[in-house]
Design brief:
Layout (H helix, E strand, L loop, with lengths): L2 H20 L4 H19 L7 H12 L5 E6 L6 H8 L13 E3 L3 E5 L6 E7 L2 H16 L7 H15 L8 H6 L1 H9 L4 E6 L2 H12 E3 L11 E8 L3 H4 L2 E5 L6 H5 L1 H9 E9 H4 L7 H5 L1 H4 L7 E7 L6 H8 L9 H25 L2 H5 L9 E5 L2 H5 L12 H36 L6 H59 L8 H10 L3 E3 L6 E3 H20 L10 H7 L13 H53 L5 H55 L11 H15 L1
Parallel strand pairs: 1-8, 1-9, 3-7, 9-10, 10-11
Antiparallel strand pairs: 2-6, 3-8, 4-5, 4-7, 12-13
Helix pairs in contact: 2-3, 2-20, 2-27, 3-20, 5-6, 16-17, 20-25, 20-27, 21-23, 21-24, 21-26, 22-25, 23-25, 24-25, 25-26
The protein binds guanosine-5'-triphosphate (GTP) and magnesium ion (MG).
Length: 727
Amino acid sequence: MSSQGTKRKRDQESSDSDSSIESPLTDMGIMLKAKKIMKRVTDILVRTDIMHKDIIISKIEKMNNVSKKATIGIFGKSGEGKSSLLSAVLGTRDLLPSGCFGACTAVVTQVEANLTDSNYIAEIELYSNEEWEKELKDLFRVLSDESEDRDDDMFQIAVEKITALYGADADKKTLEELQEDERFAEIETFLSCNKKTISNNDVSKFSNDVASYIIHSEASPGGWYWPLVKSVTFKVPDCHNLLEHIVLVDIPGSGDCNKLRDDKWKSKLRECSSVWIVSDIKRATTDKDPWGILNLCIEELGPEGECKRINFICTKTDDINAPAYIRSARLTISEDKSLNDQKKVCILHRNELSKTRVKEKFENSEIKKRFSTATDDNFLNVFTVSSNAFFEHNLILGPSETEIPKLRDDPRILNKNINRELTSDYVNEAREVLSLIQSVQLDRDKKTEETKVKVCMELENNLKKALNELDSRFDTIYTNLEKFLSKGVDESVQLCVASTKAIIAPNIDRRGFHKILQALCKNGGCYWSKNWDVILDLNRQLGKHLHENIYEYFNLIFPVTGTTGKSVQEQIDKFSIIQSDSASPGSPILHHIQNFIKTVETNLKTLLKRVVVDRKKKIYSSIQTTIEKEMSSYYEQAAAVTGIGSMKKRQELLITAVDEIKHDMFNKAKIEMLTSFKNLKLEIKNALEFGLNESMKLSLSETSNVKMMDVSREIEQLERLAEQLSN
Ligand SMILES: Nc1nc2c(ncn2[C@@H]2O[C@H](COP(=O)(O)OP(=O)(O)OP(=O)(O)O)[C@@H](O)[C@H]2O)c(=O)[nH]1
Ligand SMILES: [Mg+2]
């Protein structure tokens, strides 16, 4: 294709593209515009023989396939109103089956947007027949366990699972008898497909169909499939603005601690960028520890995760006994007010009081110390909501007083921010591609060649220098980290025996503790009770002193948001190989290449942001992982102890083990963490070095001396879009 043809084509299009840039565009508008520009460029590109054409086209294709999701985790004890709340936030009554008459959600449920059609969809991942066969054997093993230290929670869960599936009294049968049952064959056939999809555009039909897979009901045993379900994902139509880039996760407040204890679930927690703690307003302020559930997952959400925000949500605000409240709060309400008005005054009064109380409790809680961003004013937000009143308009509260619309703004704003990030990433990558196109087709003459050699040498030198500087900044961090870790090791060695005793041989008289201890040994050091009220984790406890010593510094180098002046991300941001006082100012070749390299740098840094977050989770959790590994054989030995006095023997075995391996174990944990940090440094340096070298090669290698396409106008357009985004 001749340059003439390209030029004419663009001139025809330029009028339409320029005019609409004048008025401010929404993020969506900017994205569409940028995509349109890139589509036009691609159309021309495929018809040319421009240098590195395939590389450029594949870069554009890659840009079109980027997606990003943020996870919001919804926590709370059973029956506090999580599922109802989610349905209200999504504006669809009973979308998530909620419990009454002893029913509750039994599986972790993910909710996303259906972006393709108007159906409600549930994708249900099931166990395979082999997996279920194995699980069933385990369940029957638990049921037949009549020993002293049987795990009661596990026993109860086994009963629940078997009766839910096979009907009342099925737990009284033997496995062989059960296998004779016709339900058994039915379930076998049912499990032959690994996945089940339910789809309906009528929401109540959908909810009914879906209920039998996620609800656990004690009222009518048999015919409930939740024990067979691995995971459920709901896809909800018409909620682009709310959930396009968001996943809401409804975490059941009780249920299968097997699943809750497993690693997959913890990795889900590590993905949460914010959490909602749901608590019945009656308990929110009176409960000794409304943060209990959060306390259990604090490491996964904090330093091992990326949680930036907590919404504490007091539910069921409509549920109030007004006369009793008036008395206890010593309210004076005019007698002329109707009963409904009096009730409303009470509700709103209690709402305000709850907000203040929850905030006070938070200020004094351990949790605040654990989150690096907790000092941020927006870290904790308290909502007082009523899901019921939101749907029942005749109730006393108006829609805004139910606070559901206000809460809904939270995912909406998050969604919008992600949209903006994606748009900005797209525009930046587009600029990179266009400046590459420009720089590979420069006129070839002697002077250009000379400049190119000069530029090339200069950039290579700059790269070496910049990498060295980055290296030494990382080494400073390494040295500091090592210092804090060493202090942590000393403290751990000193205190670990006492810490172990506090967990596995508590002084308080706790009935049934032998069962808990046995369960803890069987489960690699961790015990998690069915209703989330007891959690014992010896590995965490052993890692505690190391964690406490590095905590503050770790938050400085890996803050969840913002800058600290010392963060790893800021060291990366300082990296650049383009210096403003480079050779040959004004030369067009230098201009294009610099532009290209600059955008490559920006985009590499954006990519590395994600890498840093992922790796920091691994770096932090390496302490716990090392301890788990070092302790595992002792847990096995302790679990195998039998006979009279087994609890005492187990306790002694573990305490002796900790005492024996303490030096080795904590030093290993320290080395492991430092090694992971060093690996992160190498990964970052390699990514920058490789990415920039490749790009330099591309833009500085052979160039064609025929100008096939000129995208300078498109570059200008993208620059204007980028400007709009930064405003
Ligand atoms: N009065 C009143 N009751 C509510 C409200 N929200 C939920 N409930 C009731 O509280 C009970 C429990 O609600 P769910 O939404 O199932 O609770 P959950 O937190 O999902 O419970 P699990 O699934 O067991 O973890 C149900 O009977 C609901 O009808 C509310 O705003 N007002
Ligand atoms: Mg629920």
